[in-house]
Amino acid sequence: MSITNEEAIKQLRALMEDVDDSLREPYRNIHQGYPTETLIRFLKARDWNVQKAHKMLLECLEWRTQNEIDKILTKPIVPVDLYRAIRDTQLVGVSGYSKEGLPVIAIGVGLSTYDKASVHYYVQSHIQMNEYRDRVILPSASKKQGRPICTCLKILDMSGLKLSALSQIKLMTAITTIDDLNYPEKTETYYVVNVPYIFSACWKTIKPLLQERTKKKIQVLKGCGKDELLKIMDYESLPHFCRREGSGSGRHISNGTSDNCFSLDNSFHQDLYDYVKQQALLVKGTNAPIRHGSVHVRFPEPDSEGNKIFDTLETEFQKLGNDHKI
């Protein structure tokens, strides 16, 4: 790390020592005992500009306070059938760990339909997974490795990606903006697998719009990516859709449900759901009924770069749709 970067960390640390008392608890929930690594993430997200990183971090803390994010792990999505429907249509899960101890998060981009619940439920579910990752998964990995583990790897499965995904752009914009502004630099590398033509066509248009820092994180792999991914993780940590060529993404293709990391029956989702229910009981008491209804979180506005990317993506999908009709 350069002297300039070390000075930036020192300056941002000094600014955060004067943070308002009302924001100190949210700040502790963000850094989970690793404040320096947290400051580095926000500095990276703002190209090491101390004032911009400070502004971003304060806005993140205010967003958490206004939307009661620190309490979101006490608000289970009920009934369980609704949560199962969300898991079946918002395909995300943890498949294992890399050889360096980083959690491996699998995302079924192509087959996620987001059509069994309201936008607010899907956003709530997404934030709960983020918070469980940051408050439970990463601290546990850090303890096991004996060093700070503050980031993860993501494997994006594009199997089944269709032009109908255009209808999900608004929701995906909201989720991506929440991550960019409030959970910056949490992903070490994005591995994109099972790429269809529609992705390749859009990628050519989107790639030039991305910041160089972001482009370096994205690796588009051949086929299911198994050979490349086995260099950084063991076979047991591969998502089910990477275990053999042509396996596809998979709500339906796996040996039952336990090895399908998207399924509610997978151990990660079982542990997460049980954890949220237990936290709810600790807060409300064992006799208090769990309230039905989604948590409504304010969606932050994407920055100009984000707007441009999503507008371009929408245009490209429409263009591909018109070509398909012809």
Explain how this protein is built.
Helix content is 49%, strand content 9%. It is built from twelve helices and five strands. A five-stranded mixed beta sheet has the order 1-2-3-4-5. Helix 6 (119-145) links the parallel strand 2 (103-108) and strand 3 (152-157). This is SEC14 cytosolic factor. Pfam families: CRAL_TRIO, CRAL_TRIO_N.
Overall pLDDT metric: 88
The neighbouring-strand order within the major sheet is 1-2-3-4-5
Order of helices and strands: HHHHHEEHEHEHHEHHH
Straight-line N-to-C gap: 54 Å
Number of strands: 5
Protein structure class = alpha/beta
Q: Can you give the helix content as a percent range? A: 40-55%
Biggest pleated sheet: 5 strands, mixed
Organism: Camelina sativa (False flax)
Pfam families: CRAL_TRIO, CRAL_TRIO_N
Protein name: SEC14 cytosolic factor
Domain CRAL-TRIO: 79-239
Question: What are the salient characteristics of this protein?
Answer:
326 residues; alpha/beta; 49% helix; globular; 5-stranded mixed β-sheet
